[in-house]
Structure formats: C-alpha cells, structure tokens
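Form 12-C: Joint structure prediction
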Amino acid sequence: MPPGQGDQCPFCQLIENPQQLITVGETENFYAWLEVQPRSKGHANVVPKDHKESILEFSPEEYHEAMTLVRETIDKAIDGLGADGASITMNVKEAGGQMLPHAYIQIFPRFEEDENAGTPTGAIFQHREDLQDQDKLKEIQGEMNSVSPNFETEKIEPHPESQRFKEEPEEKQEENVENSEESGEEEEDDGRPERGESIEWM
Ligand SMILES: [Zn+2]
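Section 2 - Result
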C-alpha cells in the first residue's frame, strides 16, 4: 500500500474494520461483501484486502483467487437467492467507470422478474457504425496486435531476490563463504584501518 493512501481509501478503511463488512465470502487475499447501496438483490463486490489501485495490479494467482470467489458468489446468488443469472463487471480506471481508487469486481445477480432482465451490461455502449468498416477493423486489429502483453513476466518480477536465491543457491553460498572468510580475517587483524565496519561507523 503506498504511504498515506490507505488512510484515505474508503475500502482500506472498511477492511481495517472488517466487522462493518457484510461478507458473503472470503479467501486469503479477498473479501466478497454485499454492496450497501445495491443495484440488484445480492449485489456484491469482490475486493482485495491489500490496496490495489486497479485490477491491473493483480498477479496471475490473484486473478485466479478473485475469480474463484466471484464464481462462489454467483453460486450463492443462484442457489441462495434464486437468481436466474448474473453479470460481472470489472471497471478499469476512471474512464472505465471505476468509482474508487481501490480495485473491485462487481457481481450483479440477475432476475427474470427485474425490468432489466436480459439486457447485457454492454448495452450502455451504442453501436458505432463508423467502426464497422472492414478496413477500419483491420486497422484496429493491427494497432492492438502490435502490442505483446507480458503479464506473467511482469507480475513475477516483483520478487527477483527470492527467485535468484532459489535458482543459484550454490553460487551464492560460495560467494558468501569467501566473503565471510575475508571478513573473518579482517576481524582478527585488529587495528587495520581498511576494515569495512570501521569505515561505516566513521
Ligand atoms: Zn485501498
């Protein structure tokens, strides 16, 4: 969590006082809680316990954990509330409709008797005839496919130290042995002005 940010983040404040949460599920790193201003019966949010600015900060493992909790929440809505379906929304960043600076996934149970039954959430987007043209679609395809997403690598990188120690234990051990031998000699040679420790303290 970036310093200072968690203090102001409404979701972090909620998570610090979990007795306020009306939970319908929990994993090691996520809550599923009922929205207090629901837009449908059983409207729930799946929210990371750590401050993540958007779902783009989730690791592959966190996606797996979050989506498993989403699936379990849908099961509870269908079997527990008699929901006839569900819509899942992930609003990414402000332009994408994300209303808070803390990632969340919304689960809207859908009911046949509701006025909006059968309406896909994508219906908020009007059809764009100017984008239907085959040449235009090919152009957009080219622009998007010029990008090589590197999700797995990017998300594993935050732990380079632990990875390196696991991969090269022998090399590291040899280096450490040499270093400790050297420093051991230095410690025995009292009065040597080049001693690293002394220099640090000076
Ligand atoms: Zn937060």
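Section 3 - Comments
Residues 171-202 have pLDDT under 50 and may be disordered. The chain has two domains: 5-125, 127-184.
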